[in-house]
């Protein structure tokens, strides 16, 4: 579903009622816009091109062309807050598209209380590639709707928790962070920023995919993503966890400060 009046296809601006969905291999990114600024766009573009490279494909657009297209979309719609999805579809023909999509941002009350999540036994093919994998997304959305979960965490064939269906997950143990190795997941932009903050504040990060049974050994956990930012988790299935843990609260605040500094540097 497209929001607002206009979307971009290749170099042109169209009314959203003329939109037709892509078919075939599609590389995409979702970037959050705050105060008219696409957050951490350089990082999103780096992953955009890297995803294509991993599939031995090449996106025939420069970073400047994508950057200009997104800013044209923002200004044409007169919208300064929201999420933009941009993509390149390789088959049956090359097509770049960018448009605003529906979003849901957690309320301050949700951040304070934490959210309920579940487990979903599945894994992505080529996890480092941000490409459309409709089956996993459909099944994950169905589970979340049925159980009123905010997110589901994927469990691989070895019984290890890797990532969320549309987020990354961090576990907290003895004031240290645990997150899955990069090669097993799609490393998110927000995840990278949290690791950067941890490095600057002296918080240790360990790269490991935990077994489901190891959930009983952790103190807290949180997810990261474009829309949720840094969001504490209260429950996974029937297991409850501490919310308001000091390390998590610090990361929530520091990530918001990082966003403020980024916007100030662009404007």
Features:
31% helix, six-stranded antiparallel β-sheet, 267 residues, alpha+beta
The end-to-end span amounts to 30 Å
Could you describe the largest sheet, including whether it forms a barrel? 9 strands, mixed
N-to-C order of helices and strands: EEEEHHEEHEHEEEEHEEEEH
**Which structural class is indicated by helix and strand composition?**
alpha+beta
Number of helical elements? 6
Question: Percent of residues in beta strands?
Answer: 25-35%
Query: What's the multimeric state?
Result: single chain
In words, what does this structure look like?
With 267 residues, the protein is of the alpha+beta class. Helices cover 31% and strands 31% of the residues. The strands form two sheets. Strands 7, 8, 9, 10, 11, 12, 13, 14 and 15 form a nine-stranded mixed β-sheet that branches. The chain has a six-stranded antiparallel β-sheet with strand order 2-1-6-5-3-4. Helix 5 crosses helix 6 (246-266). The protein is globular and about 55 Å long. The two termini are 30 Å apart.
Give a quick rundown of the structure.
By secondary structure, the protein is α+β, with helices and mostly antiparallel strands.
Topology:
Elements: E1 3-9, E2 12-15, E3 26-34, E4 37-38, H1 41-54, H2 63-77, E5 82-89, E6 95-101, H3 108-113, E7 115-121, H4 134-147, E8 151-155, E9 161-164, E10 168-173, E11 176-179, H5 189-201, E12 205-207, E13 220-225, E14 229-236, E15 239-240, H6 246-266
Parallel strand pairs: 7-8, 7-14, 11-12
Antiparallel strand pairs: 1-2, 1-6, 3-4, 3-5, 5-6, 8-9, 10-11, 10-13, 13-14, 14-15
Helix pairs in contact: 5-6
